[in-house]
Specification:
Layout lengths: L13 H14 L4 H5 L4 H16 L3 H14 L5
Length: 78
């Protein structure tokens, strides 16, 4: 059971269609976080820009280690 309302693939329009298609092309599936932002696609775009800004100032290895450390700290298994 989904706790967050999302836009199903067959009902997606405009920017959400583009975001879903980008996931399908890049990952082969639509990520849960993409679906979670489907009611607010502009927020998803802003979140992507924030992540890009953070990543641009770190080497990939450091970014991955920080992400792992943060996930462990909050006990996130996702």
């Amino acid at each position: 059971m989904t706790l967050i309302k999302t836009v199903p693939e067959d009902q997606a329009e405009a920017r959400v269609v583009q975001q879903y298609e980008a996931d399908l092309k890049g990952k082969g599936y639509i990520a849960n976080y993409t679906k979670a932002f489907s009611l607010r696609p502009e927020v998803y775009d802003a979140w992507g820009k924030l992540l890009g800004s953070i990543r641009s100032n770190m080497r990939l290895r450091r970014y991955e280690l920080v992400t792992l450390a943060a996930a462990m700290a909050i006990r996130c298994t996702y």
